[in-house]
Amino acid sequence: MNIEEFKKEIEIDEGCKYEIYLDHLNLPTFGIGHLILDSDPESGEEVGTPVSEDRVSECFNKDVHTVLSDCEKLYEDFYTLPEEVQRIIANMMFNMGYPRLSKFKGMKAGVDARDWQQAADEMVDSRWYNQVTNRAERLVKRMRSV
User: Residues 4-17: what's their mean pLDDT?
Assistant: First the structure.
């Protein structure tokens, strides 16, 4: 997978904020969709607290590494999938995280069977689709075109 292209795509989907904000689920976040963890020094800081460009970049690179590792955990053959499918799955993993994406059993069955229409149908049939509709519609359209 072209990691730089993936990172550009995520930055477009997530946006980039150099301060703490609340995401669509009201969770404290900063940078390029970095959900603040208890272990982060920013944990407990107020919304609006500035975050440096270096810190945003550090967290984004770490998050991308974690996402790709989680994709391999969920799909043992992840890097044998078409690159477009890899990027769709990785985008969803970045957006939702492993615990939530691992519950997309029907989508996984579709991907495992290389049935991109089934995978797309299962993406639509989810709460995630209604939470991030514009992003989800773009990803579903891309899955249908594989």
Answer: 95
